[in-house]
Structures are given as C-alpha cells and as structure tokens.
C-alpha cells in the first residue's frame, strides 16, 4: 500500500470501483477485500450477513469499545450502468485532470476509500473516543443493508454519540433530507378481443385514472411551498415513475402496474401522502372495476420506505460537523440517505457530509474530484484529533 495519503486513497478507490457491486449482485468479494485490508493493519470487523448469504455489512470499531464513539458510514452498492454511454470501462478507475472516473466514485465509494485510507492514522492516534466504520449494502434500493446492521448496533451496551453519512454533499453539512415512500399498484382487469372492448375491463385505463390523480395531488403539493425552507425543492414531491401494461394492440389489457413515490418534508409525510392515494383508489376506482367483474381490482404493495431526516441545527453532532469541515452553514437536500435510519432505528444523531457532488451520482462517466477526497481526508483527520482530545 502506498505511503502517501492521496496515493492510498487512489489505490483503495481503484480497488473498490473494480468490484461490480450493482445492487442485484453480491458484495461479498468487496467486503472480503476490505476485511483483508483491515486485517493487515490488525483490525477485525463484525460482518452482518443477510438471509441469502450473498450480501453483508461491516461494522468496525477502532479505539476503546466500552465508550460511546462516532460513526463514519457509507454503502458499497452502486446503480446499474446498462443503457448509459460510458467512454470507458465503468468498473476501472481512470484519472484525468484531477478527476477520478468510475461507477461509484462519487456515490459513494470515494468516501469509503477515504475512511479506509485513514485507518492507519486512527490506529496511530490514542483515541479516547472510538471511531466506527459502518459499511452497508443495498442502499440504492431502499436502504436495505443498514437496517440489520443498526439492529445489531442497537443491542450493544454503548450507543454511538453520532454519525456522519458520507453521501456526496461537496463536504457541506446536511442536517435534513426528505423521506420517501414508494408504492406499486397492480391493476387486474379482464382481457377481451379489442373488437368487443366493452366486454372487458381495461386495466391500463383504470391505471391512467390513478396516474391523473397522482399528478393532480403533485401539483397541489407543489403549491404548498415551505417558506424559508433549507430545501432546494421547498415542498414535498409526488410522481408516477414506472408503468407496465398491455400485451398486444388487439387485446383489452388485463394487467397494468404503476409505481409511484412521494418524497415528503415531514418525518412521516411520505407515507401519509401515498396512504391517502391508496385509500382514494380503493374507494373510487376499485368498486367501479368490481362492478364490471367481481374478479377485477387493485393490489397495492410497499416497495420502498425510509423516513425523513430532521436533525436540530444546534445539535452537538451538527456543531461538531461544522467544526471539522471548517464551515458555519448547513442545508437540507431532497435525496434520501441512511442518516434518517441511524436516527430513527438506533437513536443516533446524524448528519450527511461527504465528498463529491450529487450531480455526478448515477450518471455515465461518474467522477469525483481528487481535491474533494482530500478535503474529506482533512475532515477525518480533524475527527481523529477530536477523538484523541475528547
């Protein structure tokens, strides 16, 4: 492993990017690689494996285990590259003009690489307050992997003081983000030859009524702007995102699925909005379908759920984050993170702060600037000093 900090970060990031950890694939080779890296430094982590045995999170403690510590948290999964126009292999790190390109460089293997690169400094310091590394899986499909890990953390005798979730914020201190609730509506109609369409029950047409109602409510939410909001989009949002239905032009479609989501400002607003839509559809649409044929109707299933984050601006973890980042401002973001689950599941005060820009996340030729990674390393360096002094 190279001795200089920037070279350590580059090497570790190249290693991490080299593992294809799109959410529908195992992350165990990447976790094993991290475990091997830590073992060479004399550090052992706690692996939390999922029910399939194909995914795992890693909880690492550096410093005294009998004292409350501070968490650096990041996820290992990345979004797909299919259909994107990459100019190079997305799973091979390439550096050009101070930018490091590859899938996950910004979201968020860059942050994980920085944390791992700083482990030697953590070990050399005499930490009075421990530093924990929380490395999860399947964040991109609903913050799945962090939940069992937080379940284990909640059982421990000592609860962490706070957590820094390293999603890309350009090292800005983020104290809040919207919650999200996603629902899939499956419409069951009655297929008939299109020449006798009135004898069928058109699943797509009933689904269209739901979509129009979702749009109507979205417009209403957009009119309810939160004044003096710290959010870049200062209101809750609602939209239909995926629709599937129909088999052939000459068949009345008997199935249609509609995926929709709400991102709410309030802690539980997302679910309240989608629950109201489900209730409307059951009261207004489903009876009309069943009146045509008793076997017709709508099934609803939750496909994603996480609460909003709303950390008090004067909370100790916010004050500490600002001190470590060398800034006095704070903000809120529309995108979701695992921070709200640290707060809601384990009662661990959390902020979001990490290198890179959300504008680069999920894009072809995703990149993070080396300067951002070095700023993040400086943040962790100050955290180490804080944990020594405290």
Automatic annotation (TrEMBL):
Q: What is its main location?
A: cytoplasm
Intracellular or extracellular location(s): Cytoplasm
- Is Zinc tagged as a keyword? yes
Q: Which SUPFAM superfamilies match?
A: Bacterial exopeptidase dimerisation domain, Zn-dependent exopeptidases
Q: Which residues does UniProt assign to the signal peptide?
A: none
Keywords of the record: Amino-acid biosynthesis, Arginine biosynthesis, Cobalt, Cytoplasm, Hydrolase, Metal-binding, Zinc
An example GO CC term for this entry is:
cytoplasm
In terms of Pfam families, this protein maps to: M20_dimer, Peptidase_M20
Its required cofactor(s), as named, are:
Zn(2+)
| Residue ranges of domain Peptidase M20 dimerisation in the record | 175-287
Please list the GO terms describing molecular function.
acetylornithine deacetylase activity; metal ion binding
**Keyword field contains Metal-binding:** yes
InterPro entries linked: AcOrn-deacetyl, ArgE/DapE_CS, Bact_exopeptidase_dim_dom, Peptidase_M20, Peptidase_M20_dimer, Peptidase_M20A
GO BP annotations listed: L-arginine biosynthetic process
Instruction: Return the similarity comment.
Output: Belongs to the peptidase M20A family. ArgE subfamily.
Q: Which PANTHER family match?
A: ACETYLORNITHINE DEACETYLASE, N-ACETYL-L-CITRULLINE DEACETYLASE
Q: What is this protein called?
A: Acetylornithine deacetylase
């Amino acid at each position: 492993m190279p001795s200089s900090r920037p070279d350590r970060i580059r090497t570790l990031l190249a290693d991490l990017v080299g593992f294809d950890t799109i959410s529908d694939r195992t992350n165990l080779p990447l976790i094993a690689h991290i475990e091997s890296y830590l073992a060479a430094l004399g550090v052992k982590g706690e692996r939390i494996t999922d029910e399939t045995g194909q995914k795992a999170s890693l909880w690492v403690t550096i410093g005294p285990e009998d004292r409350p510590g501070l968490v650096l948290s990041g996820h290992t999964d990345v979004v797909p590259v299919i259909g994107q126009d990459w100019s190079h292999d997305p799973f091979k790190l390439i550096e050009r003009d101070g930018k490091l390109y590859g899938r996950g460089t910004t979201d968020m293997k860059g942050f994980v690489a920085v944390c791992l690169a700083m482990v030697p400094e953590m070990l050399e310091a005499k930490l009075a307050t421990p530093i924990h590394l929380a490395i999860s899986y399947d964040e991109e499909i609903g913050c799945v992997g962090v939940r069992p890990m937080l379940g284990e953390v909640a059982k421990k005798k000592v609860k962490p003081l706070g957590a820094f979730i390293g999603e890309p914020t350009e090292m800005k201190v983020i104290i809040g983000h919207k919650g999200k609730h996603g629902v899939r509506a499956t419409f069951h109609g009655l297929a008939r030859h299109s020449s006798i369409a009135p004898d069928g029950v058109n699943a797509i047409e009933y689904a269209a009524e739901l979509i129009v109602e979702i749009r109507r409510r979205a417009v209403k939410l957009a009119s309810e702007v939160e004044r003096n909001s710290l959010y870049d989009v200062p209101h809750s949002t609602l939209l239909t995102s995926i629709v599937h239905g129909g088999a052939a032009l000459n068949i009345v479609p008997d199935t249609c699925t509609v995926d929709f989501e709400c991102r709410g400002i309030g802690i539980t607003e997302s679910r309240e909005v989608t629950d109201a839509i489900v209730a409307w559809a059951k009261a207004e649409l489903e009876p009309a379908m069943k009146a045509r044929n008793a076997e017709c109707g709508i099934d609803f299933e939750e496909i994603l759920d996480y609460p909003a984050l709303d950390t008090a601006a004067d909370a100790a973890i916010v004050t500490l984050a600002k001190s470590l980042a060398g800034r006095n401002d704070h903000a809120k973001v529309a995108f979701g993170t695992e921070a709200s689950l640290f707060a809601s599941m384990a009662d661990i005060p959390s902020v979001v702060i990490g290198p890179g820009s959300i504008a680069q996340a999920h894009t072809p030729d995703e990149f993070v600037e080396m300067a951002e990674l070095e700023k993040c390393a400086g943040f962790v360096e100050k955290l180490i000093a804080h944990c020594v002094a405290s």
